[in-house]
Design goal:
Blueprint: E1 27-33, E2 47-53, H1 57-66, H2 73-78, E3 79-82, H3 96-113, E4 116-118, H4 124-131
Parallel strand pairs: 2-4
Antiparallel strand pairs: 1-2, 1-3
Length: 137
């Protein structure tokens, strides 16, 4: 959670709490996208979206497909299926910072393998800083 003064409370896990669907940690996931998402950098590999969530990956995919405020428009429009073969073996992460770092590492790995990767978060604190920059004076 980003506090009013711009600092980050490390104990906060976005999406945690009763009824949130969180069952113990944050996860990184991959969604295969249709070719309509854009030209592939390598025709042998599909377009994919890499994300991270505090919910189960199945719940997050369903949220994306339903659309709405927290959904990625890319996944809403072009998402075909989860690709657990591209993220299985990754652990659950305790903090958003850990899962965002893992998401970025997975994104770079998939790009090196030839996938065209869409998505990926900047992390809550960085997103807030972009949306609401501090006054320099």
């Amino acid at each position: 959670m980003v506090r009013v003064d711009g600092s980050v409370w490390e104990g906060y896990v976005r999406g945690s709490g009763e009824g949130s669907g969180v069952s113990g940690g944050r996860r990184v996931y991959v969604v295969e996208l249709s070719d309509a998402a854009g030209e592939r950098s390598n025709p042998a590999f599909p377009n994919v979206y890499v994300g991270e969530t505090g919910r189960t990956v199945e719940e997050r995919f369903a949220t994306h497909k339903a659309g709405g405020r927290t959904a990625s428009r890319t996944v809403t429009r072009f998402g075909l299926q989860l690709r657990p073969d591209l993220y299985e073996g990754l652990p659950e992460y305790e903090t958003e910072a850990e899962s965002v770092a893992a998401e970025q590492r997975l994104r770079r790995k998939l790009e090196r393998q030839g996938y065209t990767v869409h998505g990926g978060t900047m992390g809550m604190a960085q997103t807030m800083a972009v949306r609401f920059p501090r006054d320099g004076g």
